[in-house]
């Protein structure tokens, strides 16, 4: 029985990966939930928005690297991130002007907007594949580990090592900064408050003289920043592939819905709920149990509830359970 | 939402009644032109897949166009139909059955029994902590038992000549039986899904069905004992003669020569024509049945529910039951199309199922054709499939020539060379957006 | 059975949202007011004169009614259900298009202005329902009310807090968590933040207890004393007419009776028909 080692194994294979994945999902879900709160539709193009921002950031990263500019121990992609955000913001604002505004002015039904966002999804998917191809792209550079497994073993004298990749640490730190900025903006600036007011009660917001087009534009810009950041962090942590980003739509939506669509705080909570469930249900617990139980007590077998390929099933199952038992999400979403 | 009663249909001007035949005529001209430019065989292949797409579109149209159900799990039901083709038509692998087939069956039964037990518990026991505890205990016990029984069976089955089989095989029945079977399999899955998810709001239902499709695909990709997973099942028996046999038949060669065709071309065309007849028969049947159903009192009720759920409910209509019925029916149609598609290809390749191609493209077909109109769905299926096929080589042509102007092997040249393929997605998106903007009811609007 | 506009056809999906068309859908251009009788010029601070109008292309709900309110006075519109009381108020605020008639504020014709522009001209409107931002705190609700103002709003906010002391106590609470009466206070407070010259209230006492209603009417009198014109639609006709300087009884979109609140209360016909004896 060796609880300390069991804890380290748990931290190494479950906690740290789940926290960084959760942060990525939370940022993605925040974008979805903001669009839902302000523009009142579920944006199916969000995964491809993330892919677009990441693709631009990657190209810019490669450009910087070719010029010999790096960011020291940090990934160069962080330097390129603002460029990606600006490009994505321009794309989203352009899309809004050319596509979405028409339906907004006609007061189209939300379900029509969802279908429209499918069209946008196709277009963005095509653009992303055009600019960066369909293959896997790795663009992480800088230091690989914040804490290496061997370093930790030497420091602690434990059998098991704890490795924290720098991409994981950067994910958590960046996500925390992004979320703090977002909440400060929403709660303490006039524009942010007007966005919340608009989300609460559009008619009254109009009566109060809040300009809807301005609110919508600012929403798209914030969504661009969140989506690009989420995409770049996910890409740094794993790798970039256009199709994978499209598939992220499912866990991201699950996170946003579980947290309560339209509720930013819920989106963050939802992101972590989904990430932890996914990692914990697909992790083979054998090693942890071996350490945690007295010798000979541990059952044989991997103690894996389901194989990692079924992670979608986890997002889905949580989604269904929450929707059946608490349809507005864990935190009250918009009462639509 | 203001509803305009039947008056509109009566007042249809003559111009509108000509619209549908004219559009189909135009579609025919496009296909014939394709035949002249790219060869008759190529055109037939496009037509066949277009007709299969039309069946898929009919299924989606049934759900969305007539009942307003937002199902974007089309890919999953298609894949289930494809699975049926394997399970019906492939010969059984006797060694695999001997190694662990029964064990797997038993395991599946245990799993199903656990779920049934859980549902019964939930229905019979009063909501309480005790029920919760009992349900959790039953669930865990059932899961452990299920894994204990099924896991050794799976390992044993997958170990049987993994390079060639490694799965249980099918029933060895004629492949045409797989078509209705595909429909049944999809319908069964749809019933289970509909029972849990149909009460959800439309965009939640969309996400739920999207998730279901991914899960079905994950099962197909990973459960090798079922259909070999990503190792693919190839050589699925065909309902029509093989080209090579035709070419060897002196009768056929003679007949072909009479039409002035060589045996190779003639055999391909003949096979495709036979397939086309089979698909047309299915398409015709599905179209006929859905037209009849929709003109029946049942169909009117479904549409009344779509137009005003609240009012329909207030009038005592069982909205949930109608929705479940139409969800199951539509999914069955999609499943049939999935089985036909796999039969056409002669193989099941789970890795090739992608939502953009097998879910969202079908949606583009329905929206462009005209949601709520079966003829529209068919036209959309043919037109969008044709466009999907034709855009890639066209794009290749345009971008390929652009790429030659770039320095050899440069980044841009590479991007441009690949661009033809990506043009498909871009074009589909643009087409969908244009139709939604300028002709939101589609090419052949609902009457 | 197809709805008129394919974009609004949500195929039975009842996703309620604000993009769903609710009230006025501006469709018809305003018909020139040539047929308006030239004689009936009313001179008051706020006048909605000989108004004819309805929703979209539907039938007219207002059939030539005239509503006027003097500066610093309370005008009340009462009448049976479906008489067009709320519609008349919405017409004055520009939330539906007039087919005939005009609206004037302080002598200026504002018939063609949008509701937002009327807010800028000094009109404030408290809708009957959905009149607060539920997830915003009370203070944020008030701030949003003053969104258009560029000057210092702290004095106005202080005045609102003095008028409704309970709001000061609850200023950091989300408005959605307050009781019905307190929400109405937030709603009125939000409207006052623009420093309006006209305050329009659509059934402010709907769904609140009689004690809260009296309290609210007291506050409304107080507001009128500061020189703000008040126009109000009320179900509780008797109580409302008691505080009214001017009362209008509408029947089928037209003026049936008008006069001071006291006169109407004393009029036997009004009493018989509308006040229950």
TrEMBL record, chain A:
It comes from the Bacteria. It is a multi-pass membrane protein. GO terms for molecular function: L-isoleucine transmembrane transporter activity; L-leucine transmembrane transporter activity; L-phenylalanine transmembrane transporter activity; L-valine transmembrane transporter activity. GO terms for biological process: D-alanine transmembrane transport; L-alanine transport; L-isoleucine import across plasma membrane. The keyword Coiled coil does not apply. It is found in: Cell membrane. The chain crosses the membrane at residues 6-39, 51-71, 77-99, 111-132, 168-186, 215-236, 305-325. Pfam families: BPD_transp_2. GO terms for cellular component: plasma membrane. Keywords: Amino-acid transport, Cell inner membrane, Cell membrane, Membrane, Transmembrane, Transmembrane helix, Transport. Belongs to the binding-protein-dependent transport system permease family. LivHM subfamily. This is Amino acid/amide ABC transporter membrane protein 1, HAAT family. It comes from Rubellimicrobium thermophilum DSM 16684.
Automatic annotation (TrEMBL), chain B:
Keywords: Cell membrane, Membrane, Transmembrane, Transmembrane helix. The chain crosses the membrane at residues 21-38, 44-62, 69-90, 96-120, 132-150, 170-192, 204-220, 269-294, 324-344, 356-375, 382-403, 423-439. GO terms for molecular function: branched-chain amino acid transmembrane transporter activity. It is found in: Cell membrane. GO terms for cellular component: plasma membrane. It is a multi-pass membrane protein. This is Amino acid/amide ABC transporter membrane protein 2, HAAT family. Pfam families: BPD_transp_2. The keyword Transmembrane applies.
Automatic annotation (TrEMBL), chain C:
SUPFAM superfamilies: P-loop containing nucleoside triphosphate hydrolases (SSF52540). InterPro entries: AAA+_ATPase, ABC_transporter-like_ATP-bd, BCAA_Transport_ATP-bd_LivF, P-loop_NTPase. PROSITE patterns: ABC_TRANSPORTER_2. It comes from the Bacteria. One of its GO terms (biological process) is L-amino acid transport. Residues 1-14 have a biased composition (Basic and acidic residues). GO terms for molecular function: ATP binding; ATP hydrolysis activity; branched-chain amino acid transmembrane transporter activity. Residues 1-30 are annotated as: Disordered. Keywords: Amino-acid transport, ATP-binding, Nucleotide-binding, Transport. Residues 39-277 form the ABC transporter domain. SMART domains: AAA. Belongs to the ABC transporter superfamily. This is Amino acid/amide ABC transporter ATP-binding protein 2, HAAT family. It comes from Rubellimicrobium thermophilum DSM 16684.
